[in-house]
Amino acid sequence: MSLCGVVPLGVFVVAHLLAMAQALRGSAAFAGALATPSRARWAVEALLIGLPLIVHAAIGLSLTRRSRPNLGSYPYPRNLAWVLQRASGGVVLVFVLAHVWQTRLELALGHASGADLPTQMVALLSSTGPFGFPLAATAYLAGVAATLYHLGNGVLGFAASFGLVRSQRAFARLRVGCALAGTALLLTSVATVIHLATGAALPWGTT
Prior knowledge:
The chain starts with a helix and ends in a 9-residue tail after the last helix. Helix content is 74%, strand content 0%. The protein has a single domain, classed as Fumarate reductase/succinate dehydrogenase, transmembrane subunit (3 helical TM bundles of succinate and fumarate reductases). It has helices at residues 2-20, 27-33, 39-66, 77-108, 117-125, 135-161, 168-198.
């Protein structure tokens, strides 16, 4: 389960967030990053990313359905992390499915072209709900945050399960590294979303 989750989700998240961040470099770079993939790339993404993530999601849903949270009796950090991992997994599943539909399946079904996606993303993230609240942008950032937490916590579990870290000190260093990498990607996503939604550039989102 860890192998089917950490590797493909890590590749998907990093590649996708960096592609979205091309909006900070201008409309031409953003359009290029969202261009229609070749057939070979479709096949690679489906086999090496999509299929393992489906297996990971199926196992995760089964574990969640059978689990019985017991934080009240055992309020330990790793037990809390396990519960948050299951909860964030549900958010990640909805977020990834929605975003893959917007950026991949719409292209595959011919409902949009690569040239249309930048305009559609701007329209979506700049839209507002009741009282002018940016629902789509907030939901996007919540999905990114949940995904980064799920991935970072998954990396820790993966490293421990496969014996990649053999001491508490090494585990603590890896945890700090995951936190720093996750924070950097989250800040990049915040700058990207604010730029697409408002046209403004945050200090760390300038090129």
